[in-house]
């Protein structure tokens, strides 16, 4: 029925949302840690340049 379809869609949307957040966080850690190790500093590429 409509209610179970609605609940299933909401669960599917939440799973996709969490997977997207996980990918963004893991990609940032890989890029930020890789850049900091290559430069020898603790600055990341996400910080503003002053």
How would you sum up this structure, described in words?
The chain crosses the membrane at residues 7-25. This protein is mainly alpha-helical and 50 residues long. It has one domain. It contains one helix and no strands. The model has no long low-confidence stretch (mean pLDDT 80).
Question: TL;DR?
Answer:
By secondary structure, this protein is mainly α.
Report strand %: under 5%
- Main sheet specs: none
What is the number of E strands?
0
Mean pLDDT: 80
Topology:
Layout: H1 2-39
Entry keywords:
50 residues; transmembrane helix; membrane
């Amino acid at each position: 029925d409509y209610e179970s379809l609605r609940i299933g869609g909401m669960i599917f949307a939440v799973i996709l949302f969490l997977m997207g957040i996980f990918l963004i966080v893991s990609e940032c850690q890989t890029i930020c840690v890789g850049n900091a190790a290559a430069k020898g500093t603790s600055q990341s590429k996400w910080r503003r340049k002053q």
